[in-house]
Amino acid sequence: MATVGIVNGHYMRLKVEGTAIARSTSCKIEFKNKVRSTAHKDTTGGWQTNGYGEYSGTFSGDFLVEETAGNFEDLYDFFAAGTKVTILFGTATSGDTTYSAEAVIDSLNITADDNENVTASISGVFDGAVTKGSVA
Prior knowledge:
Helices cover 7% and strands 46% of the residues. By secondary structure, the protein is mostly beta strands. It has a single domain, classed as Elongation Factor Tu (Ef-tu), domain 3, CATH 2.40.30. The strands form two sheets. Strands 1, 2, 3, 6, 7, 8, 9 and 10 form an eight-stranded antiparallel beta sheet that branches. Strands 4-5 form a two-stranded antiparallel sheet.
């Protein structure tokens, strides 16, 4: 049964090639539109007019580094190989909405502060259209 009410961020996951990023602390997708101006010399009232242009999107996630499947080393292998990946954003709850897309990883970093957990982050851009689906 699909989630009812406000969704708890704890259950939202970012998956890369079908594997949830392990030890995730946050994840995000963003949908964008390159707005185009439709203003012209006959436009009146002093207000700008706009129309839709090209759609795009990005994804990102932060996580704790651990030697486990779906963590930094696996993501680095995709990045270093220049491999396009399939990302999926959503919960594991049956009936909940998911968003998936082919993507290019454009950034992968790791931070190791003294006496702190080692953390990492990933980000990328969609390569083509996003598919809206639901958890079976």
